Amino acid sequence: MPEAAALAVDAGQGGVRAALVAGDRTLATAVGAGVARLGAAVSAADVAAQLVTAIRRLGPLPAERLPLAVGLSGFEAADRDELAALAGALAEALGVERTVLATDGLPALIGALGTADGVIVAAGTGTACLGRRGDRFAKVDGWGSLLGDAGSGFWIGRAGLDQALRRFDGRGGADGLMRAAERRFGPVDELADRVARDPRPARAVAGFAPDVLALAAGGDPQAGTIVAAAGRALAESACAAAARLYAVDEPVVVSYAGGILTRATAVRGAFVDAVAARRANTEVRPPRAGPLQGAALLAHIAPDLPADPCVLWRSR
Hints:
By secondary structure, the protein is an alpha/beta fold. The protein has helices at residues 44-56, 80-94, 105-113, 153-169, 175-185, 191-197, 201-206, 209-217, 221-245, 259-262, 265-278, 291-301; strands at residues 5-11, 16-22, 25-32, 67-72, 98-103, 118-123, 127-133, 136-140, 252-257, 282-284, 311-314. The strands form 2 sheets. The protein has a 6-stranded mixed sheet with strand order 3-2-1-4-5-11, sandwiched between helices. It is globular and about 60 Å long. The relative contact order is 0.18.
């Protein structure tokens, strides 16, 4: 890891984390509100303002011009002109040496495995899975809460709320999850309206994941079933990425990132077991570092990288 400092940002739908990193040392960290996808309702200036707000919370920055790398969730389909406008707004506001915008899976992969080949599964509010073998990449899932993100915080939260609503309706469901939903959201018959009215509905649903995880840790069988299924879903994504890059009998290293896998031991246990069951010669290895450290390294090495579909934009 280069000793020179870099600005690193991990920008997800559920929140933004920023850091000033030098070598193996994280000198300062800050958090901010999650970013929405670029589009008709959200401009590059809007996204830049949210990212700059988080970075400013780091406090005074070194006098020298620093490189900046941002891992972005849900920006793969963004228009190149919008990405250029976002990078330009960040450079103007921060006076950085250069700006790199990447999919959120790339900093997670670099943080976990450095420049070595392998597969990363990142599970937070959403899910991102990325495999790398030389100059070949395989992206799996990360399709957003409406169409994908299997095993994510949103996925766990939604499954828990489904069981709560089923219990309220008399369609089976789970008492423990219904009571947990009432504690978090209020009366169950108002739950759907409360979530729909939330400015970030996906984040509101994902906010129920800690309740599901806590119930599972306490022995609730329905919550435990959801948690185990999340681990298996994340393993399915990891093995799908590996299968696109490696022969069935080739060894593969898999690692992980995001709170659902790094902090929820039950999800991680189910994930590790399911990877082993699905694919021989596959080692699940704890991450060397997190996405912020990966973004900092990306900020330094980006000028020397070959064309990479995971790098959305880099200043020349």
